[in-house]
Every structure is written in structure tokens, then in C-alpha cells.
User: Which sequence fits this backbone?
């Protein structure tokens, strides 16, 4: 195996299993005698609970137990605030089951455990709850006013957090400005909508005292720590398994959702396995959402178009609780200047409580909102200064010789100063222009207009801080029987192809095929140091940890093989699952080397015979394992990034708008993308394409339609419009590979990249397409046919 | 946690039951099940065929697609009792007995047509059904999008699935 695997389009190891229907998602795991959970959820946005009567539900045939906040003992407390931050004065988190008050439609009020889900739902409907509805305010800006109804009685003005960051001297920049442009833009609330909703199952083994929890989570190790803490169990007695997980996109990184605590509790109390499989409606009502932000952004520019200052003030909707701290707003505020130099920045946000389900990161995590704000502002500035949209960006992009480019005073989500580490921003923009045919577009546009068709060019640049710490680990072990390589890390996978990209990294070091590298993650019994899968960090943090570990194992293999083959270590090369003496036919298979590295008493195969005590080659000049020596070919190591590494890209599109039907059709979509060295370009493209599709959803279709009374009017996939294949255009992706200097593999994250720029591209393109009708403005996404119709009406069309 | 006495827990609901018989992946099966049991739950939990997934339970996402008498249908909108007497095929029947992938599955693997794999069985069943219909396949961009228009995928952005359909047509000599 001399071909380099890093960088190759290796097909995925996991695919055959998933394609044959042999995946093991939480609800696929057989749990004999399992009981099933259904929740009673609040029908009110804000109300007091006057009384709850569960007697009829308890009597219902097939019901094992009914729980309210009165019945859950020590669990009846507010769940953890995961990321504390001084900008939050009185941070609120939710109780597993409502006590006294409900704060959003869908909040869990009672839990029924029954023989099957059908029965549990029937019984939930028999629970009588009397509510006293309270007034509420759904509008973000109004919620901050003095006379607005409060979500939490002790949080004035519904102000959850207030934070200001400054870089450089923005006041001076605005004083020096020759032109200032200002716009207000809005991104609406959406949801990750993973195809598999959330799911939790638990089994309590009273004999061994072990709690096993299967959880479709992005953070199994963190969930394990939390459960051990809540249930006061030794960590070793709690095993959390995130088996195959059907998409996550951030929604599944939050812990805890109420069910993640209540299901294990019920399993322990009832002595039977218990399962909760969230249904689609519950996923809309009870699982985290994101995106609503309203930015008012000002750019201070010179007449040349050079932007010397930026001021941004935004409102961030955090829902009724703020368990994930200010992460989303902080990422937005630190991404606000995009790939541009803009040396003077003032960015302020207010996070606002609204009577809705909590807001925590959804793929993009504040970046799409920041990108929408800065890119729409750049378009407006270009228009006001009479500059081309490509040209104004060209004049402001950070140049290659300016890296690392620091933004003093802006702290990213890792608590460290924003430092854009590397890139070829100008080249990416030029590639986008070429791929879009920007030079000839004006002629094409004119020709189309003459035929009564309205084409527009949309454009946006983005940056993405990736690879957040604190750390991840890797464990690599060569199996003595099969010679296959086992690799573990502390993440879980929701379809990103970890098992293949990590295998590629290891394969190169150990001279094996990626198919012979078996990656096991998402199980705290396999590896239990680490954090979670989020923030486009798996390849960066676990990838480098596994790389470092593989280097150590490589060294061990070479030393052991040199010993066995009686040559100097530098005469050994690793390929085809064996160690070879260079330039000869002499070799030792990895399995044999691994076996020989483990002093044996019992011989169970031919290779093992050579490792037993009485074998001729056996060592007799001291103990079989010298002091400090470990058996086998195995190592564990960790990687902790010094800071985040910043990926970037440029997206563009040719968009056609039908002013009669107010429809938007993307004729051509171009993505120039740079995530540093690509471990597997096929998988990178898959991540980017998936992100773009979600971005198109967010740009045109996906809008959570909350009513003034707090009810979500479109809590189903029938009404919340996730794009089908029919809505997704062909996309051309071109790669740049600028290795980051920050980690050994030179990789940056890619998970969120695709979705960030799409809203800005679409709005930019629609504006351009409709220019013959006047200077119509599109400052809000999703950009609906109604908005186009309204804008056209304004100009008398 | 101290060991406590095992609670008395019911083991069945009060639902009326009905006998159902059908052929599933070539085998005759008979069970007595709740009258309101969905076909998806019957396949998954009564028969252990968990490859059929459930993504929305309202017939929109297509994850639960199985073949009913050769036609693609939503098992989450079908009661088990409605399938009485039917010939049902699920994702578990698609690959060869030795695990060799069907050309549609092989094409998904080659084209990176899946990520999390949750929607994939439904996608594959829908495509297999269409490929088994006689007549010419419309393998244009629009034609394939139309073929896939009853199945949601949240990971891939569909383009690799479109490529997989085209590749499957090649592998099956239908291109």
C-alpha cells in the first residue's frame, strides 16, 4: 500500500452496512421488555400551571408510570448552564418537567411510561392540566421594552445577555469616513431537522450497578459525565453509546434535553429498559432551534471603497432559556467582519428571552447571520460608491502576506483572540468570478431582459472559525490476531465519514489499507476522554490526535520489526499490512509483529507460538516486559489546538426571478472553498453540498412560523419546507488547499462551511435580477415569494 | 442505588388485536398485532427488520418507504392490517444473501450518495421500485429529481444521489 491515502477519494467504510439496512440507530437496538415514553407538552407559550391530575392516565391499561415534577426527586432542578459567560446576568435553564410555569409551547410537563408508544400517547392525553395563560411578546425588539410581558419574572426587559466587543478604534474610523452606509437585516428562525429525530434508551442493570444509555447525541462523553453527576454514580458505571446517529447539525450537541435525564431515571426506577423516540412534531416543538437575529450594521468607508470601520448592533433570540450560553451570538459577533481587513470594529449584541424553545447552535451557529449582515452591507456600499460588487470585495480582502491577521479585542468561541491564520482570499474571489462567467454576465443579463427574463448575479464571501478546543484524543492499536488496526476517539458521528477519514490518516502511517482500519467512537467504553462533535472540529482536533498517535505506533512497529528481522530501523518500510526490509523480499506481517510484541503464555495460533515463553526466540535476559515497556503495538495521544483555524470561501450564483410568479430559480451555483489540506475530497464535497442545500432551505424556504400566541404553525415537514431534490440546483465546487500552519495535518474544519453564505448570495442575486424594477431591497431571509411580491408592489408593478 | 423490589408493570395494552399474514422478503409471516399498529412498527419491532426507518410519521420524508406488491409505499401511513395478504419487500432484501450490494446500493457507495444513512433505505427502495418498472427511464437532471421527489435527505444536498441514480442505471444496463 504505497499510495498515499490522505487526500484520496476513498469510498466510505460505513456505507455497506448503512446501505443494507444494517445500521444501528437508537430505535433499532433490540431492548427486550422495553417500556416506551410519551410526553405531555405545554400548549401555551407562557402560562402558570394551576393543577395537574394524572389519575386517569395512571389507571389507563398498559401504563407503568406517570411522572410530573413532583415525582422526579433530585432531578427536579434547573438543568446545567453549559457555557457560563459574564455577559449573562441571570442565566435561565429549564427543568426536566415544568414546575409552576411553562415557558414555551412544547415544554415537557409530564412523562408517561407504558408498554408501547401508542398507549403512552393515549395516557398522556388523559392527563388533566389546568393552566392560567399569561401574556407574552414574540417580537424581539418589543420584548426589550419596559412594558413588555416578561418570560422570566426576575429578568427585566427579557434581556438574557448584553455584550460589547471592540477592535481598533471604531469611533476614529467613523470620524475619518468619507462614506457611511447602514442597513438593517434579519435572518429568521429555522431548525436542523435531522432525518432521525432525537432518541434515548436506557437500561439499568441492578446486579452490576451499571447504567447503559443509548443516546443519539453528538456528545456521548459529556452526557456520561453529566449522568454520573446527576445520578451520583461512578463514571465507570455509566456507559453512554451514541450508535449510528441520523444527522445532528448541532441540534444533538445540547445536553441535557429533558428526556436524556428522565429516561435513565425511569429505567432505574422501574427496573425495565425504557425508550423515548422523539417524533417529528416533538422535534419541531421541543428540540433546539436557531437563527433569528436582527443586525443593524454600518460600514465606514473611504471613497475608494476601502472599509475602515464597522459598527454592528444586533438582537439575538435565545428562546426561553440559554443553556448553551451566548455561543451563537458570540460566533456571529466575531465573524462579522468576514474575510475583510476592516481594522476597526464595534460589535454589540443583546440576547433576548422569548417564549419559545431554546436556541442553541444549528449548523452555522451565528455565521450565516453575520455573513448575511456584512455581505448585504458590502453590496449596498458598492452600489452607493458606484463600484462593482467583486471590485469592492477585492479592495478589502485580507491579502496573503497579511496572515496571521489578528482582530485584537474580539474573542472567538474558544475564548481566544480572532486570528485568521491563512488563506488565498483574492484568488478564491477571482476563481468565483471566472466560474460564474462574471465578465460576460452583463451581456447575458441584458439579453435575457430583452426576452423578458430577469437574471441576477449573487455573490458572498465567508469565513469560518473551525476546530475549537479544548482537545480530543486518539487511541490506535494493532490487533495481534488479524493485524487490523483499531482506532478510537471520543467523538460520535452523524454521517460525516469519521470512520473513513480517520482510517486514511492511520493507513498512511502504518502501511495498511483504510479498509483494514476500524474506527470505533461514540461509546464511552471504547474511549472516554474528549468533548463532542461540533464546531467543524472532528477532522482538526480528533484527526490530529489520531495522527500523532499513529506516528507513535508507527515508531513502535518499526522498532519491533527491525528487531524481528534483525536490521536497522531505517531499513524498514511499512506497506501491505507488513514491515518490509527495504529492497528485499523479507517481511513480517503486522499481525505477527503485534503478536511478538506481546509476551504470551498461551499459544492460540502459529504466530502466537513464537511469542510464548519456551519459544526459541523468546527473551530470557530479564522480565519478558522491561520496566516501562507495554505489551502490543498501541498508543494513546491527544491534540489540543493552540487556537481555532479559519476556513473560508466564496459563493456565487446566477439566479432567475419570475416577477409574475415571484419565484426564484437558481440557474447556476458556484462554490469556491478552502478548508486547508483535504483528507478526502469526496467527503469534503459531500459536506459542502449538504451545507449548501441547508443554506438554500434557509435562504428560500425554511421559516418557523410562530404565531403571536407562541404557537408554531408549521410544526411538520408538510408545512416547514425542507428542500427536496427538486429544489436543489447543480453546484460546481472548486477547491483551494491552503494548509493551516496551526496543526500537523494542515487541515481546517468543513462541516458548517456550505450553509454560511447562501442566504446572502440569494438575496444579492434577487436584488440584481429585479434591478430593472427599481432599487428593491431584500434584507431578510428566508426570502419568500410574498417578500418579492410586496417589494414589486411598492414600485407599482 | 439500593436494589428495590421489582415493580408490578403491565405487559400489554388494552388494544384489540387482529391476525395478519403477509409475505415479507419472500417469507410468509403471521402475527397477532394491535389493530392500530403501523406497518413500519410491525416491520421494525415485530419482525426486527429495522432497516426501514421512520423520519416523520406523516408521509412526507420517505424514510419508511417499502415495496407493497412491487410498488413503493409509505409504511408509516399504512396499518399492518392493511398489508394483510400483501407481498412486502424491505431494504433487507435488496443486497444478495452474501451481502453483495445491489447495483443501486453499489452506486450510492461509489457516488457518496449517503452520509448519516437514515434516509438511505427509503431512497434505495424508491429507486429500486422505479428501476423495476418496465419502460425507459428518464435520466435527465429533471427526470431524476422527479424520481427522488418523494424522499427527503438532510445530509447530502441530493446531487450525489442524483449521480448515484445515473450510475445505477449504467450498472443495470438501463442507461
Assistant:
Amino acid at each position: 500500500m504505497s499510495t498515499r491515502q490522505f487526500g484520496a477519494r476513498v469510498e466510505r467504510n460505513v456505507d455497506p452496512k448503512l446501505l443494507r439496512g444494517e445500521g444501528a440507530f437508537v430505535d433499532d437496538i433490540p431492548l427486550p421488555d422495553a417500556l416506551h415514553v410519551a410526553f405531555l407538552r405545554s400548549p401555551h407559550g407562557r402560562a402558570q400551571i394551576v393543577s395537574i391530575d394524572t389519575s386517569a392516565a395512571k389507571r389507563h391499561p398498559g401504563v407503568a408510570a406517570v411522572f410530573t415534577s413532583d415525582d422526579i426527586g433530585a432531578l427536579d432542578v434547573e438543568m446545567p448552564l453549559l457555557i457560563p459567560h459574564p455577559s449573562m446576568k441571570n442565566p435561565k435553564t429549564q427543568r426536566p418537567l415544568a414546575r409552576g410555569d411553562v415557558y414555551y409551547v412544547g415544554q415537557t410537563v409530564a412523562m408517561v411510561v407504558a408498554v408501547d408508544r401508542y398507549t403512552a400517547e393515549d395516557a398522556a392525553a388523559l392527563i388533566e392540566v389546568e393552566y392560567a395563560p399569561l401574556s407574552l411578546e414574540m417580537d424581539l425588539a418589543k420584548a426589550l421594552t419596559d412594558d413588555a410581558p416578561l418570560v422570566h419574572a426576575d429578568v427585566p426587559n427579557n434581556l438574557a445577555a448584553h455584550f460589547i466587543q471592540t477592535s481598533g478604534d471604531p469611533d476614529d474610523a467613523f470620524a475619518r469616513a468619507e462614506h457611511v452606509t447602514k442597513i438593517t437585516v434579519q435572518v429568521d428562525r429555522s431548525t436542523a431537522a435531522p432525518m432521525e429525530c432525537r432518541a434515548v434508551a436506557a437500561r439499568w442493570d441492578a446486579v452490576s450497578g451499571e447504567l447503559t444509555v443509548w443516546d443519539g447525541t453528538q456528545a456521548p462523553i459529556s452526557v456520561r459525565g453529566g449522568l454520573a453527576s446527576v445520578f451520583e454514580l461512578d463514571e465507570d458505571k455509566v456507559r453512554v453509546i451514541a450508535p449510528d446517529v441520523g444527522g445532528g447539525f448541532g441540534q444533538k450537541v445540547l445536553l441535557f434535553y429533558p428526556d436524556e435525564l428522565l429516561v435513565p431515571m425511569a429505567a432505574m426506577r422501574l427496573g425495565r429498559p425504557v425508550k423515548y423516540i422523539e417524533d417529528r412534531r416533538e422535534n419541531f416543538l421541543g428540540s433546539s432551534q436557531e437563527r433569528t437575529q436582527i443586525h443593524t450594521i454600518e460600514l465606514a468607508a473611504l471613497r475608494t471603497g476601502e472599509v475602515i470601520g464597522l459598527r454592528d448592533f444586533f438582537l439575538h433570540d435565545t428562546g426561553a432559556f440559554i443553556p448553551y450560553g451566548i455561543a451563537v451570538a458570540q460566533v456571529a459577533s466575531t465573524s462579522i467582519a468576514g474575510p475583510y481587513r476592516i481594522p476597526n470594529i464595534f460589535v454589540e449584541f443583546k440576547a433576548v428571552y422569548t417564549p419559545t424553545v431554546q436556541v442553541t447552535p444549528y449548523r452555522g451557529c451565528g455565521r450565516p447571520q453575520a455573513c448575511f449582515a456584512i455581505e448585504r452591507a458590502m453590496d449596498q456600499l458598492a452600489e452607493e460608491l458606484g463600484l462593482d460588487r467583486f471590485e469592492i470585495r477585492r479592495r478589502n480582502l485580507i491579502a496573503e502576506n497579511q496572515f496571521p491577521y489578528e482582530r485584537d479585542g474580539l474573542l472567538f468561541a474558544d475564548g481566544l483572540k480572532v486570528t485568521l491564520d491563512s488563506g488565498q482570499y483574492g484568488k478564491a474571489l477571482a476563481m468565483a468570478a471566472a466560474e460564474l462567467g462574471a465578465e460576460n454576465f452583463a451581456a447575458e443579463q441584458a439579453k435575457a431582459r430583452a426576452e423578458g427574463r430577469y437574471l441576477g448575479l449573487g455573490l458572498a464571501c465567508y469565513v469560518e472559525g473551525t476546530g475549537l478546543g479544548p482537545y480530543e484524543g486518539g487511541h490506535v492499536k494493532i490487533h495481534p490476531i488479524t493485524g487490523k488496526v483499531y482506532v478510537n476517539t471520543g467523538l460520535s458521528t452523524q454521517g460525516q465519514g469519521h470512520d473513513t477519514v480517520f482510517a486514511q490518516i492511520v493507513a498512511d502511517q502504518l502501511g495498511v489499507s483504510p479498509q483494514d482500519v476500524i474506527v470505533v467512537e461514540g461509546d464511552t467504553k471504547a474511549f472516554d476522554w474528549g468533548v463532542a462533535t461540533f464546531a467543524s472540529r472532528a477532522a482538526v482536533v480528533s484527526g490530529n490526535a489520531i495522527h500523532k498517535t499513529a506516528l507513535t505506533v508507527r515508531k513502535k512497529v518499526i522498532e519491533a520489526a527491525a528487531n524481528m528481522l534483525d536490521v536497522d530501523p531505517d531499513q524498514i518500510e511499512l506497506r501491505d499490512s507488513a514491515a518490509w526490509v527495504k529492497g528485499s523480499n523479507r517481511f513480517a506481517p503486522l499481525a505477527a509483529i503485534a503478536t511478538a510484541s506481546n509476551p504470551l503464555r498461551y499459544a492460540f495460533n502459529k504466530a502466537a507460538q513464537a511469542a510464548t515463553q519456551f519459544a526459541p526466540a523468546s527473551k530470557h535476559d530479564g522480565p519478558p516486559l522491561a520496566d516501562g515497556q507495554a505489551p502490543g503495538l498501541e498508543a494513546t495521544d491527544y491534540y489540543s489546538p493552540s487556537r481555532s483555524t479559519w476556513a473560508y470561501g466564496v459563493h456565487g450564483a446566477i439566479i432567475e426571478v419570475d416577477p409574475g410568479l415571484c419565484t426564484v430559480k437558481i440557474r447556476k451555483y458556484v462554490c469556491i472553498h478552502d478548508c486547508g489540506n483535504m483528507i478526502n475530497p469526496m467527503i469534503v464535497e459531500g459536506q459542502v453540498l449538504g451545507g449548501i442545500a441547508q443554506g438554500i432551505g434557509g435562504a428560500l424556504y425554511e421559516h418557523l412560523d410562530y404565531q403571536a400566541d407562541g404557537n408554531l404553525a408549521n410544526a411538520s415537514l408538510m408545512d416547514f419546507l425542507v428542500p427536496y431534490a427538486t429544489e436543489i440546483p447543480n453546484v460546481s465546487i472548486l477547491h483551494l488547499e491552503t494548509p493551516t500552519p496551526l496543526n500537523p495535518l494542515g487541515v481546517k474544519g468543513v462541516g458548517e462551511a456550505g450553509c454560511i453564505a447562501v442566504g446572502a448570495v440569494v438575496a444579492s442575486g434577487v436584488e440584481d435580477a429585479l434591478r430593472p424594477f427599481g432599487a428593491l431591497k431584500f434584507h431578510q431571509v428566508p426570502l419568500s415569494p410574498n417578500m418579492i411580491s410586496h417589494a414589486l408592489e411598492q414600485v407599482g408593478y | 442505588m439500593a436494589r428495590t423490589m421489582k415493580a408490578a408493570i403491565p405487559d400489554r395494552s388494552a388494544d384489540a388485536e387482529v391476525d395478519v399474514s403477509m409475505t415479507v422478503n419472500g417469507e410468509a409471516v403471521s402475527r397477532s398485532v394491535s389493530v392500530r399498529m403501523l406497518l413500519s412498527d410491525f416491520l421494525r419491532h415485530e419482525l426486527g427488520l429495522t432497516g426501514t426507518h421512520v423520519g416523520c410519521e406523516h408521509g412526507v420524508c420517505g424514510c419508511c418507504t417499502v415495496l407493497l406488491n412491487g410498488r413503493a409505499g409509505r409504511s408509516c401511513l399504512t396499518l399492518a392490517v392493511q398489508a394483510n395478504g400483501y407481498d412486502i419487500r424491505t431494504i433487507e432484501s435488496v443486497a444478495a444473501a452474501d451481502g453483495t450490494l445491489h447495483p443501486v446500493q453499489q452506486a450510492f457507495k461509489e457516488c457518496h450518495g449517503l452520509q448519516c444513512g437514515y434516509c438511505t433505505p427509503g431512497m434505495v427502495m424508491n429507486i429500486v421500485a422505479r428501476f423495476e418498472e418496465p419502460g425507459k427511464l428518464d435520466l435527465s437532471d429533471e427526470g431524476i429529481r422527479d424520481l427522488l421527489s418523494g424522499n427527503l435527505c438532510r445530509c447530502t444536498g441530493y446531487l450525489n444521489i442524483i449521480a448515484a441514480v445515473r450510475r445505477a442505471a449504467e450498472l443495470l444496463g438501463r442507461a
Notes: DSSP finds five helices and five strands in chain B.
